[in-house]
Give the backbone structure.
Amino acid sequence: MTKVDLISVLYEKVGLPKKEAQEIVETLFETIKETLIIGETIKISGFGTFYVRKKGARKGRNPKTLQEVEIKPRKVITFKVSDSLKKSINKA
């Protein structure tokens, strides 16, 4: 499913004009991005939790040359699915 698909669902099921549906979807995703950029957690009840996790520096290996390389510390976004969504998926 893409953003366009989400906009179409809002248009069809809720009856919003496509322009308003697009603004809502764009605003939602922009808010999620801004919240994660500042390092805050986003918890959506019945869906899951997005959070930013820090990964430390470590040594890795180039699989082609087998040369060791330093992997710098970084932040990653992690998603943990809610138990209710997990149960719903497993029922299907």
Observations:
- Residues 18-37 form the longest helix (20 residues).
- The longest strand covers residues 48-55.
- The chain has three helices and five strands.
